[in-house]
Amino acid sequence: MSDPGCRIGPRGLRRGAALTLVFAGVLATGAATGALPRGQAQEPPVHPRSVAATADRDEVAEAAADAVADGKSGTEAAEEVVSRSGDRWGAVYDEREYQEFEESLGGTYTGVGLAARRSADGQVAVARVQPGSPADHAGIRSGDLLRTIDGRRVDRLPVSDVVALLRGDGTGAKAGSTVSLGVRRGTATRTETLSRARLTVESVTVRRVGAQRSGPSGAVRIAVASFTKGSGAAVRDAVRDAPAGAGVLLDLRGNPGGLVTEAVTAASAFLDGGLVATYDVHGEQHALYAKPGGDTGRPVVVLVDGGTMSAAELVTGALQDRGRAVTVGSRTFGKGSVQMPSQLAGGSVAELTVGHYRTPAGRGVDGKGITPDLAVSARAQERAETVLSGLGGGS
Questions:
Q1: Which positions are catalytic?
Q2: How many independent structural domains does the chain possess?
Q3: Would you say 181 and 201 are in contact if contact means Cβ atoms under 8 Å apart?
Q4: Tell me: the pLDDT tens digits for 285-341?
Q5: What is the mean pLDDT of residues 228-248?
Q6: Distance between CA 386 and CA 8 in Å, rounded?
Q7: What's the Cα-to-Cα distance from 105 to each of 156, 257, 335, rounded to whole Å?
Q8: Are residues 148 and 196 in the same domain?
Q9: Calpha distance 334→370 (Å, rounded)
């Protein structure tokens, strides 16, 4: 999971993940990491009976209005109601947080340029370092272990909380604020103090992989860090530009989700129309369909892990159920609930769970995740490339 779009603590985790999969429709105001139109569902859901606990929207709105009338924080009052409700992914954002959310959907965020993951032995490891970022300038590299953040041990924290600490979520941290990292490489441990910066994410990266990468076909790895604006088209273009006969390794590891519309566009790159997911909002059923004209011929392997969430799970489930890809890696996170945003008194925004989404075969994802066709924890990309080669993908 990368440092865009996460929040710290139980409340923070709800905020970060609740914002990872959102419909792009008529967004009246921004949000903080995926943005959704007020009055429309954020994430694809499922049947009404499967909707988890949720806060009552009227009760949340009333609490905020009463607090504002008394000169208190409407955001805090609304958060208290949501917290009592048991809505795991429900969240309340103040105006600044919601604006940050919208900016993140455009591919910008405040952080240090690290993506984190849980290593095979349970430690927090650096998955990626963004070139030119504060982490890159400090010499932090992929594979380094994060031991502490501002003196706090992080080995037992959820990765989402680690990322939130890196961003300074909940503290009002801005570009220029500092964060101290305890980093271990091999047997050597050191402390680096980094200044956070406004960073632009390259959400989609493309490169050749495998022994024949210099040959006429080979295989192409398309890594999607998150489904921000334009990422779906970038995946589509990468597939169209791939050499004839080249297989595609679609790497969704550590992808925390993003805009549903971008996820559908990405899935459409490999499908010729047809169902991508179903969802409901307050019992009303809906469906998401791929655009026709995708590449249905070249072999595809999707690489996933426990950091593959929301919109990334939507793509994974669609390609797996439609028989379009072999999935390799470890079970995905299991974030498949739908939140709907509404504005509260004082300018804050509440997002409350209204349903869940299902894959084309009718599988629920929330709390379950997606089990890959080939479950591997070590050397996952190498195994994925082997599978792709066996499918005729030329890696």
A1: 310, 335
A2: 3
A3: no
A4: 899 999 999 999 999 999 999 999 999 999 999 999 999 999 999 999 999 988 888
A5: 95
A6: 38
A7: 29, 10, 18
A8: yes
A9: 7
Instruction: Report the range of poorest mean pLDDT among 35-49, 59-73, 141-155, 344-358.
Output: 35-49
Instruction: Give the pairing of strands 114-118 and 124-129.
Output: antiparallel
DSSP string, 269-281: TT-SS-EEEEEEE
Residue 43, pLDDT score: 35
Asked whether residue 343 is domain-assigned, the answer is no
Tokens standing for residue 207 = 């490169």
How many residues are recorded in the chain?
A: 395
Residue where one domain finishes, among candidates 105, 127, 159: 105
Tell me the residue type at 208. R
Q: Which amino acid is at 347?
A: G
The residue segments making up the domain with residue 81 are 9-105
Using an 8 Å Cβ cutoff, are 320 and 359 in contact? yes
pLDDT at residue 52, rounded to an integer:
55
Write down the pTM of the prediction.
0.72
Q: Please tell me the distance from the alpha carbon of residue 113 to that of residue 98, in angstroms, as a whole number.
A: 21
What CATH code is carried by the domain that includes residue 334?
3.90.226.10
